[in-house]
Amino acid sequence: MSFTASYRKLYESGELGNRVKALYGLEKECALCPRNCRVKRFEGEKGVCGADSTLYVASAFPHFGEEPPLTGVYGSGTIFLSHCNLKCVFCQNYDISHGGEGQPVTARELGVMMLHLQSQGCHNINFVTPTHYAPQIVEGIYEGARLGLETPIVWNCGGYESLEVIRLLEDVVDIYMPDIKYSATESAKRYSKAPDYPQVIKQVLKEMFRQVGDLELDFRGIARRGLLIRHLVMPNNAAGTEDVLKFIANELSRKSYVNIMDQYRPLYKAFRYPQIARPITRDEYESAISIAKQVGLSRGFTG
Q1: Helices (DSSP H) in the chain: which residue ranges?
Q2: 41-59 per-position pLDDT tens digit
Q3: CA 84, CA 73: separation in Å to the nearest integer?
Q4: Alpha-carbon gap, residue 285 to 303, rounded angstroms
Q5: Which residues lie closer than 8 Å to 147 by C-beta, 6 or more apart?
Q6: Burial of 125: CB neighbours in 10 Å, binned 0-12, 13-18, 19+
Q7: For 131-160, what is each residue's pLDDT tens digit?
Q8: Hey, is 296 helix, strand or coil?
């Protein structure tokens, strides 16, 4: 392979095992995300995310619908985790994230699953909504590394992360792919039940950027390491897009790779909220692209 994931060094030094122990320590009375539910997941208790200590996986397959730097030629080895620590009323994967659909998987089984994706040529292992299962995932990476896993890891998250957990993921994760959902407290509270989201996401993004920097591509245009940001344009500016893009450009980097997404649809419970009960218009999306260009961003979007 042209690039070896950073966790190989952690595994060989024994540090990866230490990270697993530290993360499980945060799950004992759960503090794996900013909600700090403090529930005893090992005793079967469940917090806001709806998960106990058993890892549930909804699906695992080579995904060709992700950003081009992730999918490349052979796809992104995407593993969808069940449950979620955000409660977005417009969730497009609500059966998985809210309903918890999936099958129980041990750490060793997860490692084998990753090896299977690697054997299919996937350019990365892409964990979707991983926040609440960070200990189990890193243990799975440990098991995979023991068996020969060397494919880069993508942390594909909603951005509502514990700063302590993200610090423990340094050199475990090669590519961070967070959403930036909102810049305003009111929207974060109303649509995701997370009023502190705008404050949390800024700290988390700065730490992610410190660890991996701007997205780096190899000669094929495939991501090797770095930060890939997603932002979903919402109707009636519910996401606060201008402030989001200004933050990225001014406090992270104007070289940031930002996928400005136009696929918002009023799914799940969104129809109950008049402000977001319709798709976005072409003008709303083009306005977001225009703002991105005005603040100096240019990577990850067209228009």
Answers
A1: 7-13, 15-28, 68-71, 94-97, 107-119, 134-146, 163-168, 185-192, 197-212, 241-247, 282-294
A2: 999 999 999 999 999 999 9
A3: 30
A4: 10
A5: 111, 112, 115
A6: buried
A7: 999 999 999 999 999 999 999 999 999 999
A8: coil
